[in-house]
Amino acid sequence: MTQQTDSRGELRAALSLASSGTPVLPLRAGKVPFGNCPACAKNICGGRPNMKVPGSCACPRPCHGWAAASTDPGVVDSPGWARAWREAAAVAYYPGGVGLTVVDLDNTDAIAWARASLPATRTVPTTRGEHWIYRGTMHGANAVRPGVDIKSLMAYARWLGPGTGVVAALPDAVRALAVKEPSTARRAPQALSVPLGNHEGRCPHRTPTYLDRGIAMAEQRITGAREAVHATVYRTFLAVLSTHGRCGCLTDAHTARLFTAAQAKGESARHCTDAWTNALTTLGMTHD
């Protein structure tokens, strides 16, 4: 059964967003885009030119998902989009089109992780969790950790209101979530010198509890990995270093806790050292 919604309300919200320069598109029930029209089904249209650019779809209907997002009120309120708005369950927008990244936290555990690991920013309540909105773009990615998706370039997010709080800059800790460990990296074990005191960035820790909580969450992430343990260890090391590695607060005890958690999951000391070194290299950090 088609979900009954106030289609005019959805359209009004979409037009307001479009007029402010935010690319929008309608979503059907299930928070998914409308399928391609018969002329574009199974991509027989050839994908249209520049389909990586929102609004580039030449179809008069809202085809091609996020790429159909438009800021043109004449398109949004056109006859070709009318049927979609009559059946629309929600409005979506293209975060990358306005220079934003949305960290979609789908449950309370994900929210707890974000509060312990990410800088505060604008938040928007969702049905089951929260959207954390940052200034800056990256490629969207799903399931970067349990209950966490990233919506930015080539992705859409449901519009649920402007939210509260000040939009912060996109942190390295979020970028790190979508980075996979280089499969060709093969480095000999290197002695690690920690804390990383040669990095003189401003310390973001208001209290020692912030760092301790971040390390505990990292341990929990490694311990809870049920698959892709290698990648999980690398991404966790990358996130810890991007958040805590530049201010010199990490100690031997902290890194030992991370290495111990990884080795308890079957990782060798060699792989732990390689993963840590690769993370340092990815972030442009050096160690003595």
Structure report:
By secondary structure, the chain is α+β, with helices and mostly antiparallel strands. 35% of the residues lie in helices and 14% in strands. The protein has nine helices and ten strands. Strands 4, 5, 6, 7, 8 and 10 form a six-stranded mixed beta sheet that branches. It has a four-stranded antiparallel beta sheet with strand order 2-1-3-9. A hairpin with a 4-residue loop joins strand 5 and strand 6. Helix 6 runs parallel beside helix 8. The N terminus is likely disordered.
What attributes does this structure have?
288 residues, alpha+beta, six-stranded mixed sheet, four-stranded antiparallel sheet, 9 helices, 35% helix
What separation lies between the terminal Cα atoms?
A: 63 Å
- The total beta strand count reads 10
User: Considering DSSP H and I runs of 4 or more, what fraction of the residues is helical?
Assistant: 25-40%
- The H/E string reads HEEHHEEHEEEEEEHHHHH
Q: How large, in whole angstroms, is the Cα Rg? A: 22 Å
Largest sheet: 6 strands, mixed
Strand content: 5-15%
Q: Which structural class do you get from the secondary structure elements?
A: alpha+beta
Please state the overall shape, judged from the principal axes of the Cα atoms. Answer: elongated
